[in-house]
Specification:
This protein is mostly helical. The protein is built from 21 helices and 6 strands.
């Protein structure tokens, strides 16, 4: 048993939670199952892995580039607060598990394994479960498994190791399968049959806001990509220019407020460097890293969706891979990403100001990952389904939900005391509801959560049973059938 655990630990540490290599291996296996020559399969592995590494460079660059702003807002105004960010959230769980519950973080790895197996079984039984997507975003699975483990211990502190891992594995595996399944139709529509779903931290949020955006749109809805500015405003028709200018206005103003003395003292800016050009470079780098991220998306998504047919045909018929939300940034309007980030940030900052004014016992610091990746993703889908107004309003509402939901929930479950909480939309809105049910209804609450999750894809299927599986199995045939209606 110990030998098997060491193998699993090695796989989880070096492959499953390292999405570049996990995606690369999926591509390799998929091409081999399609009977492609070994050299083609290896080339696909390389392109998919490198593509994801490029995406990681873009994502990491975005996070690090705006660290002075987020840290500065905390330090400059003497805010002692919890940071909503997946990495801060994971660190908080690690710090508190032993002290509060007497458990070790190694059990989180077991939870991840059990939940992932449940996800695969649910998709394999899609004829009955109606679930069509496999969650493959390993680093996100790790973050969610750690927070889910804390939540289950909070609800059932006296449960033994095996019982708690099995119960939480079932709930988390269902969440992964159901959440990524919710994004199948809207992602296929956005990408025109791209052959993947979104598997990240805001899957329920994406579905909710996409459906809400539809109410704002209509046949004559105007999307961001439909807008052509006249005269001197035409410079904003270029995504790179629009992104750079908007960042300069929005975050340039914040850097000016923070001031050069603070940035020098904090080590973000050398004393002999010009403050104006530091602001210019910081804001323009947003466009640079966004372009890198989109290049990575284009590089690995094609390989993954093409090769996954081998896995789908052999083991998981009709299934699609659920991948990082950044994969959709190469579709629709490029400006939707920037608009979503800005309006999501406005929502978060407004909510933080309200918490300060109300003298909330738990203050929140905006983490870059929720404010960008949640809200940019929601904006991409909202723009596609509802147009420009939806692309601005939905991320703004999302930003409010992230801060208020995280402040209340993290205080209640005790994670705020350790300085961080995951803070993404599903974990600020959906999981608090699940936790209330499990905490106050005990095992009956677990049953209610499981039943709700099982029912969601069944209701999706009943809404359009004739095209439900066709959309992943043969997108062209799906379009033909839709157009005939």
């Amino acid at each position: 048993m110990e030998f098997l655990m060491s193998i699993w630990s090695y796989f989880a540490t070096n492959i499953l939670t390292q999405p570049a290599y996990f995606i690369g291996i999926i591509v390799l296996i998929g091409y081999l199952l399609l009977r492609k020559p070994l050299y083609e399969a290896f080339a696909g592995f390389v392109k998919a892995t490198v593509g994801y590494l490029i995406l990681s460079v873009g994502s990491g660059g975005l996070v690090n580039n705006f660290r002075p702003i987020l840290v500065g807002l905390k330090d400059r105004f003497n805010l002692d607060a919890m940071v909503i960010d997946p990495y801060f959230g994971q660190n908080a769980v690690t710090a508190g598990l032993g002290e509060v519950f007497g458990r070790t973080f190694s059990q989180v790895m077991l939870l991840l394994l059990i939940a992932f197996i449940f996800n695969l079984i649910l998709v394999r039984l899609k004829k009955w479960t109606k679930m069509r997507a496999v969650f493959t975003t390993g680093h996100v699975q790790m973050q969610q498994a750690s927070t889910a483990f804390w939540i289950m211990l909070f609800c059932f502190p006296a449960l033994g190791d095996t019982s708690i891992l099995l119960i939480m594995g079932l709930v988390l595996g269902l969440y992964w399968a159901v959440g990524s399944n919710l994004t199948v139709e809207i992602t296929q529509d956005l990408t025109e049959g791209g052959g993947f779903a979104v598997a990240h931290q805001q899957m329920f949020g994406i579905f909710f806001f996409a459906k809400l955006a539809e109410k704002m749109g209509g046949k004559d809805k105007k999307r961001l990509e439909d807008i052509q500015f006249p005269g001197f405003l035409s410079i904003f028709n270029e995504n790179m220019v629009a992104t750079s200018v908007l960042m300069l206005i929005f975050f340039g103003a914040i850097l000016v407020i923070l001031g050069k003395p603070y940035l020098v003292e904090a080590g973000f800016l050398a004393a002999d460097k010009d403050f104006f050009f530091y602001i210019l470079t910081t804001c323009f780098n947003f466009a640079v890293y966004l372009a890198i991220l989109q290049l990575g998306v284009r590089t690995f998504v094609t390989e993954l969706t093409n090769s996954f047919q081998g896995i789908s045909n052999t083991f998981l018929p009709g299934a699609v891979p659920g991948i990082d939300c950044a994969a959709v940034y190469g579709f629709g309007s490029s400006n939707a990403v920037t608009i979503g980030f800005l309006f999501g940030a406005l929502g978060q900052f407004l909510a933080i100001i309200v918490l300060i004014l109300l003298k909330s016992p738990t203050l929140v610091i905006a983490g870059f990952v929720p404010v960008f990746f949640d809200n940019a993703t929601i904006a991409v889908f909202a723009n596609n389904r509802g147009g420009v107004k939806a692309a601005m309003l939905m991320p703004f509402i999302s930003g409010l939900c992230q801060v208020f939901g995280s402040a209340i929930f993290a205080s209640w479950v005790g994670l705020a005391a350790y300085g961080g909480y995951l803070g993404m939309w599903d974990w600020a809105v959906v999981w608090p509801v699940f936790t209330v049910l499990m905490k106050f209804l005990s095992y009956a609450g677990v049953a209610v959560v499981v039943i709700i999750l099982i029912l969601i894809p069944q209701l999706q299927y009943r809404a359009h049973p004739d095209t439900y599986f066709l959309i992943t199995e043969d997108y062209d045939a799906y379009l033909e059938k839709i157009n005939k209606k």
